[in-house]
Description:
12-stranded antiparallel β-sheet
Amino acid sequence: NSYYNTILVDTLTPQLSTVYSDSISTSASGKILVGSYTDNRFGKITAKSFFEVYPPAVAELATNATFDSLELIIRPDKSYYGDTTFASKMSVYQLTNKLAFPLYQTQFYNNSDFPVDPTPLGIVNALIYPNHTDSIAIRLSDAKGQELFNLYRSNDVSMQSTTNFLNYFKGLQISPSSAGRHAVYGFNDSAIMRLHYHVTGVFTESKQRDFSFYNADNTQFNQVK
Length: 225
């Protein structure tokens, strides 16, 4: 006993939009991403990587062993995004906080971040050929190298286990220079921080100790913005 109105609609116009997630997991990816690229459609894209290294097995050094240099060696995995005909300037920084997951979190994301010492440990400006460049060596601070050498030679407690070392040396960040926006490169997660020294005898003998890439705790991650 009431009035009603029935309307027949035979045309439907959908309203569509694109929705992107707030963040994506980038921890334990097996890849180090570094670089910056300005895309005509997607805008500026910047990638930097955070990771840890662990100390070499403790061994007694000769009394006349002398420190030479410290370098970080990273190896391109042939992946890239952008224009590789330009040189890429990258900086290495030392973390000031440990790479530790927040409470109830087991991953890091593309927008995660950790503070670093503002003074870079090393800077390199390299022309990278993704299919041919075997490795990039970044010379690091002699002062930090001498410090590590002295701790290693004295068998300091910081060198006696990975846990102790990570309490002393929190980790590294590799980031691109703000000036270059030409390409983002992928590197294998096999970075090595190599300590060079020599022993003088009848002949001078060059030696090295490697602080290897560490990711048993799955805290290595890439920040991509």
